[in-house]
Amino acid sequence: MKSFRHLSHIQLLQLSFASLFFSTLLLHAVFSGTSATHLLCLLSAAPASVSLSCAWCPESDRRCTLEVSEYFLRRSKSFSSESEDFMRGIYLKSGLGDETYAPKFIFEENCKPDFEDAVDEAREGMFAAVDAVFSKTGIDRRRIDMVIVTSGGFSPAPSLSSLVVNRYKLKPEVKTFNLSGMGCSSGLIAVDLAATILRSSRKSLYAIVVVIESISLNWYFGDNRSMLVTNCIFRVGCAAALMTNDQTLRQAAKMELSRSLRTHHGADESAYRAAFQHEDAEGNTGVALTKDLIRVAGLSLSRHITHLAPRVLPLSQLAYYLYSVVTSGGDSKPAVPDFTTAFEHLCIHTGGKAVIEKVGRVLKLSVSVTEPARMTLHRFGNTSSSLVFYELAYFDAKGRLKKGDRMWMLAFGTGFKVCSLVWKCLKDSPDEFDNPWRDCIHRYPVKAW
Length: 449
Description:
The protein is of the alpha/beta class. About 40% of the residues lie in helices and about 15% in strands. It contains 13 helices and 11 strands. It has helices at about 10-30, 65-75, 80-95, 115-135, 160-170, 185-200, 225-235, 270, 295-310, 315-325, 355-365, 365-380, 385-400, and strands spanning about 35-45, 145-150, 175-180, 205-215, 235-245, 255-265, 275-280, 285-290, 345, 405-415, 415-425. The strands form 2 sheets. A 9-stranded mixed beta sheet has the order 3-2-4-5-1-6-11-10-9, with helices on both faces. β10 (about 405-415) and β11 form a beta hairpin. The longest helix has 23 residues, at about 10-30.
């Protein structure tokens, strides 16, 4: 007790809070359970696949090189020379390589996309992805109970989920959900929604989750620099998954979802407007990525992990963190716990070079841990809601996933949202012929920046 006499009232309060917090953690560790939601098949299409399964890539003539980009800008005659120079500079510093995929209109005579271009882009990706899911799993389409489609910036009527039902002639009792406006985190949000419904059902259900971003109508034709950035980094991508709570299929499943966490920081005005769609002074619609975005991402992540840490970190790391809380004072901050002690693999948001670097700094991650994110950005660009699934494919292509391994998926979304999924691998990485990295994995990792 003598050691407590020299503590200030603030430190005593911190210690009391830490004791209560630690007791809560122990109870949480005792009573927490594991979900029974399984990922049977995860793949991507439109231009590539995601790991865990089937994939489809367009022809190589859809690759968006620097030369292709510059030729498109000149043909479109929609940008000032200053804007062209600005986008060239962003592209060269972005960390993207010359093998990302662009929508079809970039390569066609008509440089201005229309509604049909957007529908075709969505249809191309979704149908290839879901076709691969059915082919690889062999599941009867009549057994599908739920379809969830997420597309952040494109929401036609009828909905994209209705398009899937129509294409595959699903049963009348199928439940459909269509998510939009959720940003790059919407892929994880869609998986979380499916898992929540599956967990709440006493019946064995099967859900198709489709993660698509149609960027055709979201291409910005103006000179607002905060909006021009999206033209430089966003690329075509799609992913699809089959999820179930059927325990008899656990042996066939590839991954098991053990935890999910979503936090929303939109009450703060700067977070709400960090990535914001609106019209510029000339009436051109675009998504502005503000200069405050990276700061908001870092702050939101810091708050997010305070909720995630007690649920996933080993007690040794929690004790270390709590000790740093008690002993820190003045300008010093508590130590950041080592999340690599909780997970063998991390799929972090590959939204851009600055975002990856910010996440690395906040979580104190080594270059080797951020490698999959950097390489995914280089090979596929920012595919929005499907980006972490392309990253997952990188782990598969490298043969790094082992049965029993734990994986943390982390993504950010407009609004501002942070979403985490925690997976347990039920099988080693498969050697799949349709992995989107298969024809280039021997060249990776490369020095992206």
